[in-house]
Write a structure and sequence with these properties.
It comes from Streptomyces achromogenes. By secondary structure, the protein is mainly α. Helix content is 76%, strand content 0%.
Length: 472
Amino acid sequence: MKGFGRSPALTLTGSVAGAMVVALDGTALTVAQPTLRGDLAASLAQVQWAGTGYLIAVAGLLVFAGRLGDRHGHRRLFGVGMLGFGAASAGLALAPDMRWVIGLRVVQGVFGALLQPATLGMLRASYPPERLRTALAVRTASIGVAAAAGPLVGGALATEFGWRAVFLLNIVPTVLFGVLALASREPARPDPGGALDLPGALLLGLALACLVHTLVTLPAVSWSAPLALLAGVAVVRHERRAVSPLLPPDVIGSPAVGAALGMLVVASAALNGGLFACVYVLQDGLGHTALHSALLSLPLPVLLVAAAPASAVLLRRAGARATVAGATAVLATGLLVLAGAFGPITFCTGFALVGAGFGAVMVAATHVVVRQAPAESAGVAGGLQQTAMNVGPVLGVATATVLMGLGPARSPLLVLALAAAAALPVCRALPRRPSRASSAVSVPPAGRRDATHIDLDVERGPRGRSLGDHEI
């Protein structure tokens, strides 16, 4: 039987399975929370901490987990993460009270942090540049399918079998792909040359965990806000002086990677904050049932899935800069449509635009982050991408919560649309599609250094070489 290392298709299947397990778990559990609360006689605060504890554990460990994958192998980290996630899920299905649920959700978050960067690191190592964007598009589409199916699957399982069945859903795929990953031989890796930056990992984890806690507890003022700021300053100072920094300069020093991460935060904040506001607009404001609201929002996941392969084509033909900018404009337009929507047609149109825009941004920006980073730092790049995708939703929901406390339920839609539009200039730092002329110039004659080709706007590979038209 072929292992992950010998079969790119199996590697992609494992990456998709890992991404879908995490996405399905989160969305399915959201629907099952009322049943869980009633069965365990839990308070609303306890239920919220089950989610908050998971988010803090994930956000604090993603980048460090990515660095571990770079040093010790992405498949190994993926296998351990999948098996640990499945074991925590089994424990949650047997949890006797809410204290066990909160504790095991934190454990689940730790193993989720191990497997998520590895799903991108494995793809970066297994696919050549001309096929990487397609693999990322498949992964993104699968996340859209899981996000759409999660509420339906979670609701059906919780109704028929109880909330514990939601966690049992994770066990088979995590065990199957975890064992396959660990059974595959990890390729030989170069000596990382330096000790693991544990102080940097602790400082960064503390900063991100406190940031997530601060956002989750808004609009209340939290003790974690000043601690997040102090830890963030300490991270910057430490990383500048570290011999073997957790965050390699060739990753965080890349304007393209920074811009792509920023756009991922903006897009995911706009999507999740907008959805949060729409729930209240549709149900409290317009009197729709939860089922009717879900049906009206169905175009969002459908267009998100459809946009993923379309984005891979746009990346090849137009480049990352035009793709991300255009998709962000579509996302902002969708939020503006939702801000003024009252009938089914306008709501469906708005949700469709939001889904299409977000799906394209996610594929294109993720491609930039993973492709621009050197192969030996693919895990850190994946960890940064996953961190952006975890911080963005928390930021969006926190923004919507504050704005809805100050004004109408539709106000977050307008503000988030304007924020997305205001972020468009950031796209100028993303790589553009090189013209045939620039591609020709970028290949110097044999024996001569390419001293004249300094166009930093053209998309480059991990060694600084300009990518050809077929590689974008």
